[in-house]
Design brief:
The protein is an alpha/beta fold. The protein has helices at residues 47-63, 83-97, 104-130, 146-155, 172-178, 198-207, 227-244; strands at 2-9, 12-19, 22-29, 36-42, 67-71, 135-143, 159-165, 185-190, 213-218.
């Protein structure tokens, strides 16, 4: 991991880095006196475009004493695009525009290769960060592509709790994997999300094997998430990451 910038904004230290070919940003409380929990900030891709929103989430986490990190997704930002993913995304968008539901084959072609590549990249990022002084876990997962979050929560025992955003299509194989996810979960759903299959989101929530899971549904479209939803998610991490320390 090679850090390329280091700047302080109030009580938040922001450091850009590169891990191999993967760019990322690390935010940490400026006044942390002991190893702090770490939250993985997921997003839909385009790290530079998402930075203002991610920094706001990181600032809220730092107020609770947590560090946060985000990395660029495969094929997004300046990373090489995948021709097969581009074709699958076009097929999905055509199906939605025609008023239909994308086929499971199209969803698999778009989502599963992303999950297979991105999850090991997140794990490599965790490996590198947890070797640095000041980061001792536990680790929380917040948002991003929900199928990726399911896989990461399943395969990495360092993830102690997760906030998942039910706002993207999920392969049926990932729903089957969700049955083996047992960590505490806080799932957010926009009830009228024009780009979300509501029933699929409900099926995913029902499949999770966690004994502690909650689904918070709010009226409105994809960009209409109410402010208090973020506050509720912060409270969830405050309970579970601090308790796990």
């Amino acid at each position: 991991m090679h850090f390329t910038s280091d700047r302080r904004n109030g009580d938040l230290i922001e450091r850009e880095f590169v891990l191999g070919e993967i760019p990322g940003v690390l935010w940490a409380p400026a006044r942390a006196s002991s190893p702090v929990p770490l939250i993985l900030l997921g997003h839909p891709g385009g790290l530079n475009r998402m930075l203002p929103r991610l920094a706001a989430r990181a600032e809220a986490a730092a107020a609770q004493g947590f560090a946060s990190v985000a990395i660029e997704l495969p094929g997004a930002g300046d990373r090489p695009a995948s021709a097969s993913a581009t074709r699958a995304r076009a097929d999905l968008q055509r199906a939605i525009a025609a008023g239909g539901r994308p086929s499971e084959e199209v969803i698999d072609r778009l989502v599963l290769p992303l999950v297979e590549q991105a999850v090991p990249e997140w794990q490599a990022t965790l490996d590198a960060l947890l070797e640095l002084p000041g980061f001792g876990g536990p680790v929380g997962l917040s948002g991003g592509v929900v199928a990726m979050g399911v896989r990461l929560a399943l395969v990495d025992p360092r993830i102690a709790a997760a906030v998942l955003f039910a706002g993207s299509y999920v392969p049926r194989s990932i729903i089957e994997e969700a049955r083996r996810v047992t960590i505490p979960l806080h799932v957010l759903l926009q009830w009228d999300d024009e780009g979300n299959d509501r029933q699929l989101a409900l099926d995913l929530f029902d499949a999770f094997g966690s004994t502690e899971k909650q689904l918070i549904a709010n009226m409105g479209g994809h960009t209409g998430v109410p402010r208090h939803a973020g506050e509720d998610a912060s409270g969830f991490f405050a309970r579970h990451l601090v308790r796990a320390c």
